[in-house]
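Standup notes
- DV: blocked on the single-chain target, sequence here:
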Amino acid sequence: MAGELRVHPATILNWERGKTEPGARMLARIIKVLGYHPRLVGSDLPSRIRAAREIRGLTQEQLAEDLGLDPSTVRKWERGRKRPYPRLTRIFEAFVGRPSI
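- DV (later): unblocked, structure below
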């Protein structure tokens, strides 16, 4: 796996042990190599937003910019800390439903 991702084997070990996490761009590469998303994704909207963002290799800030939102909105939604307004629910549902690159 380390060779395919072009990272040091210790990096993989740190990810597996939870010492560090791969960044958004690296996670997109991991998903491509594995053929699936390695994290368990719940059916709730916050989990689906995060997984869809990570599959595309986007940071929260990049997603917010793409959707014309404030980055704090994306952060709060992914953490499940804020209940959505109907308009935002539609924006995020549309994003989650978009095909990845």
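- Follow-up: The longest helix spans residues 86-97.
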